[in-house]
Structure formats: structure tokens, C-alpha cells
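A common beginner's mistake is to predict each chain separately and then try to dock the pieces by hand. The better habit, illustrated here, is to supply every component at once so that their relative placement is modeled jointly.
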Amino acid sequence: MHSPKLLLEGVTYRYRAGRQSVEALAGIDLTVNAGEFVTIIGPSGCGKSTLFNIIAGVEEPTGGTIMLDGEVNGERTGKTGYMPQQPLLLPWRTVEENVMLGLDIRRVPRRLAREQAHELLKRFGLSEFADHYPASLSGGMSQRVALLRTVLFHPSFLLLDEPFGALDALTRLSLQMWLQELWQSLQSSILFITHDVREAILLSDRIYIFSARPARVLRVVRVELPRPRRPEQLATPAAASLEQELISLLLKEQRA
Amino acid sequence: MNGGASDTLRKLASYGPAIILATLLLVLWESYVRLAQVSPFILPAPTAMLQALVANWGLLYEHTLQTLVETLIGLAISVVLGLLIAVLLDLSPWVRRALYPLLLTSQTIPMVALAPLLLVWFGYGLLPKVLLVILYCFFPIAVACADGLLSVEPELIKVLRSMRASRWQILWLVRLPGALPAFFSGLRIAVTYSVTGAIVGEYVGAEKGLGLYMETSANSFAMANVLAAVLITVVLTILLFGLVALCERLALPWYFTQARMRR
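With all components supplied together, the output reads:
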């Protein structure tokens, strides 16, 4: 067995709000193996996004150890592809230029960066939009572009924070299938946040259920549906009973 | 493109009401002066103004050129200075707190009082006029730009930091381009003051320029000549304003696409 892509042990996070010290994360243990699709699901405001900021290196935890790419508590910025819920494309850059943003930051020569962005857009069916400005894209299309920007910066480990949360059901489904294809063809490891139990079951190898704030891991379940997954599989008895189980677990937390 | 052409036409048509109103006011002015037989020493008719413009064109042209040069130099320096100040204000809350009150104070000085002082300090040449233009123009540019730099989404900054972007990369790749629309808003306000700034400087003492021409004409009660110079000032300012709008269109094609999409 290879060492995992990401290993969290007892990660805690407290912050000060006025005079009070608020506990956001109460000791998170979590593993993402290489090539694995892991989802975190939990009540809103439970601290999932804080955890992502910590993993991406934008914030430091109060305690615990983080092993990323085998390095313990080292520098983490630049080693993940972090994508928040909003696409946050730069309106003055075309689709292609947006996708190459990460390479600009790495100071990859322009021509080379453009070539790579072009290649990626072609590979995932967006080359016809390469010269469009983001203003002319639909919500789903913007999210695809934002995902490719993330992928081009760091394809091997993606942190996706509710990337499809703001989309309508049909667009969401088509993006879920697109993401699955992307994940399999790039052999990335993905850590994914969602509120949507069906989305979690459809996409994940394993699901972490978080408690309400301060967040801890309530349960970890493995999704044993064959790959590649199809939306129809959500109707199978195994998937349906898992869905019910997760929903009742989350409902209890929501009330708490 | 078809859309572009019809856009231009619609744009021109949208000036229609303004042109009609202005023409109406000019006609009213002209008929009042003629019917009431107002003395040309008090209020010349618009036609008299145009006659003065044509008759003195050779001389006016020289003065206009001088004013234009002062204005453009002042504006250019204001743009650089405004951008620099915006970036400085952005460096840290400390710099902002120290610098902002001073900048604001600079705008409370009555320029008519300052102009003679500048004349005493720097003489009759170009410098005091350029300084006045700068004093009028840098502030709107600096303030608009500083606001523009702050307008970036905090989530986007997080994404960039997760990519290990340096502070300067974030400024250069995201915040400055994002502040450009605000910069142009500031610049548009600045150009409307710019010509006036140069003229105030010339009015108190100069060897050449529209301000000097206005002053000497007013002293000899050649009101039509004063108004001719005013007309040139107006046209010059509108042309500069149009030039800025054109630059904005060329520099920010994305901004106008966005605006069109939202309509």
C-alpha cells in the first residue's frame, strides 16, 4: 500500500470571536488515499470549509498533524487544487487565460501555459469556448472552466468545496458525470464537500459524515457501487438504504 | 458587425435629446439678446461668440495649444501619481490612516488662493499650471483606484494564496486589472476638471494660454472673445472626456461585454 495522499490526525481549530474562543474543529481524523474520491458531508456551518482552508495551507490549524504528500506539517500552499463554491473567474481573461492562471502564478512561460490550457480544454470538451469571456458563460459552464483552472494548477489532488451547490438539478447531474470522467482519466485524488447525500453516494469511494459545530467525524462509510457510476444506480436497494441512513444521521445533527 | 453598427446608431440617437435642448437654449439666448437689445459688453449673442472665434482663430489656436499641453502633462502625471497613491494606500492600514487625511486636506485648499502662491514660487512658466492640473486631477483617480483595489472577492484571494501567489502577483494579476473600471471612472471625473485647472493657473499669470486670453479680453470688455475662449474650453473638455471613454472601451472589452450581458 502507498502512503496516503493526505492524512489528518486530531486536527483542531479554534478562533477568537470577540472575547470568546470558538471551537470549529474538534479533532478531525481523515485519510485520502491516492486516486481516491472522498466526500465530506455535514450540517451547514460545521467547519468543513475551514478544514479546506487548512488543508490548502491558507490557514493553520490550532493543533494536530497534517501529512500531505508524505510531508508532516510542511508547507501546503501550491500542493493542492483548491476550488470554492463560486467559480470566481477573472472577467477580463478569456476562458483559456482563466484556465492558465495557476501556471502564470508558477511563472510558466506564456506560450507553454497557453498550449497546456488549450490541450486541457480540448480534452474535456470546452475548446469552442476558449476565446469567450466568462460573462457569456452559463453557470454550469463557468463551473467547468473553474474546475479546469484548478486541475491545470494541480491535477493530482483536488479540494472541491461544494462546486455544484449553486446549479440546477439537471446541470448538476451533467457536471457530476463530467467530474467523474475527469477524475478517472486524470487519476486524481479528490476531497469533496457537499450537502447533497445523493451527490455524495453517486461520486464517492468513501463518505465522512461530520457532526454539527464543533465538527468531528461521526461516521465513515464506503460506497460499494461499481464504477463507472450511472445516475440509475442511485435507485438500487443498496444505494437507497445508504441514502436513508445518511439522511437520518444528518437530520439528527441538524436538530442538535 | 451588425450588432456593433446598430449599437453605434442607437448611441448617437441617445444624444438627440441633449442636442435638441442645447439648440433650444442657444436660440432662446440669441433671441433674447436681439429682442432686448442687450449691450455686447454685457452679454454677446451666440452668433457674436462664433464670429469672435473665427476672427481670432489664429491667436486662439496658439493659446489653446498651450493650455492643451499643460492639461495633458498634468493629466499624465496625475494618472501615474493617482495609481501610485492607490497602491500605497493599499499597502497597509497604517499607510492608509496616515495618508488619507493629508490627501483629503489637499482637496480642501481653494485653488484660486493657491494659484497666485504657485506663481510666486515657480514663476510664469509651465510648472505652476501643471501643478494645479495635478492638484485637481490626482485625487479622483487615487480614490477611485484605491476603492477598486479593495473590490476583489476575498474567496478569490484565498484561491490565489492556495496557489502560493505572492502579494505582488495577487496585485498584478487580479487586483489591478480588477480596479481598472474604477480607475477609468476616476479618470473621467479628473478630465472634466483638468482643463479648468490649467486655466485657473493661467488666469493669475502666464505668458500664453486660454486663461490669459480670457483675463486680458475681460479686462478690455471684449466679452465675445471671453465666450469664444470658454467655448473652446468646453469643446476641449468634452473631447478629452470622449477620448477617455474610447480608451476605456479599447482597454476593457470584457467590461462592456459584461454590461451588455446583464442588460
